[in-house]
Amino acid sequence: MKTYNHLFGPVPSRRYGLSLGVDLAAPKTCTLDCIFCQLGATPRTTLTRTDSPPMDAILAELRHWLARTETEKKERLDFVTAAGSGEPTLHLRFGDLFRFARAEMPGRSLLLSNGSLFYLPEVRRDAALADVVKLSLHAWDQASFERISRPHPLLRFDAILDGYRAFRQSFVGRLDLEVFIIPGINDRDDQAQRIAALARSFAPDTITLNTAVRPPADSTVTACPPERLRALNALFGTAVRESGTVPTRAAGELSGEALIALIERHPMALSALATTFGHSESDLRAFVEPLARQGRLRLFESQGTLFVGGIGTSSDPADH
Ligand code: SF4
Predict the structure, then answer these.
(1) What's the CATH number of domain 7-253, 3.30.1780.10, 3.40.50.720, 3.30.70.270, 3.20.20.70?
(2) Could you state, in order of their start, the residue ranges of all structural domains in the chain?
């Protein structure tokens, strides 16, 4: 079995289903050095965009994966995801990955970016080739940006936000936003309101609040308690685009269509679904049981864990 240098997975993810990851950044190459980063400290922030690792080598691995992977497995793929050990838009040719994905790959394409280079028109142009783009916003001004993300000295918070607004104007795909909540740093109501107001100015389709679950770069960063996250969810829920088709975890609203879309090809543990939608397990269970009775999804147990799956999916989560 071939070991790939630039591909990982496919791996199941809570938000994006089954994802084949493409690592576009050598460890750890980033424009930022976030205090909450779970990859450890950035040795030296950079704004220099390069063709490293070589895009031709990455595309060769994708061609190999396509040629050697069974059709059934390929058809299960939800996303080809540009991600990895740093900021993928630092790769000068990341747009070529999305061109290739559009022409050759099953599933949709996804860019996970910290957004710091979106002030560059060429980055926005290539990012728009992805089907789904996830950006980040944890701060409300230059000072809070510097405190939380310890950016490269030339990065300007306002220019990045202008880039987000320009991108929203032209991007026809789904725009997701992630806000990392750090107790004592950006979790006060007034701070969260300022971030939400900025989010409102470019109206993402979804907002997800995240908090530390693995050891962060700065050991003083702690996890935001679930009850505080729930309170903030309501505050951020007003910032999403009304026409968005995917309900937000931040909005705290459950929609049968969104839930079924998430699990119809890959079952998820009930507990993971509850986290995804920002509800308690008991609330989530009360919501899915009537859908199961209506025959719109299935509830089943595997190895002591309760799963929610689509009508046509296997009961064995190891298959997915
Ligand atoms: S942008 Fe992402 S990879 Fe870069 S330092 Fe921040 S959390 Fe880590």
Answers:
(1) 3.20.20.70
(2) 7-253, 254-320
- Give the predicted TM-score (pTM) of the model: 0.76
Closest-lying ligand 1 atom to the alpha carbon of residue 85: 3
Q: Does any ligand 1 atom lie closer than 6 A to the CB of residue 86?
A: yes
Confirm or reject: Cβ of 112 under 6 Å from ligand 1.
no
- pLDDT band per the 50, 70, 90 thresholds, residue 258: low
Give per-residue pLDDT as tens, 273-291.
776 666 778 878 888 887 8
**DSSP per residue over the chain, as a string?**
-PPPSSEEEEEEETTTEEEEEEE-S-TTB-S---TT-TT---SS-----B--S-HHHHHHHHHHHHHHS-HHHHHH--EEEEE-SB-GGGBTTHHHHHHHHHHH-SSEEEEE---TTTTSHHHHHHHTTSSEEEEE---SSHHHHHHHH---TT--HHHHHHHHHHHHHH--SEEEEEEE--TTTT-SHHHHHHHHHHHHHH--SEEEEE---S--SSTT--PPPHHHHHHHHHHHHTTS-TT-SS--TTTT---HHHHHHHHSSS-EEHHHHHHHHT--HHHHHHHHHHHHHTTSSEEEEETTEEEEE-TTS-S-GGG-
Q: Note the CATH number of domain 254-320.
A: 1.10.10.10
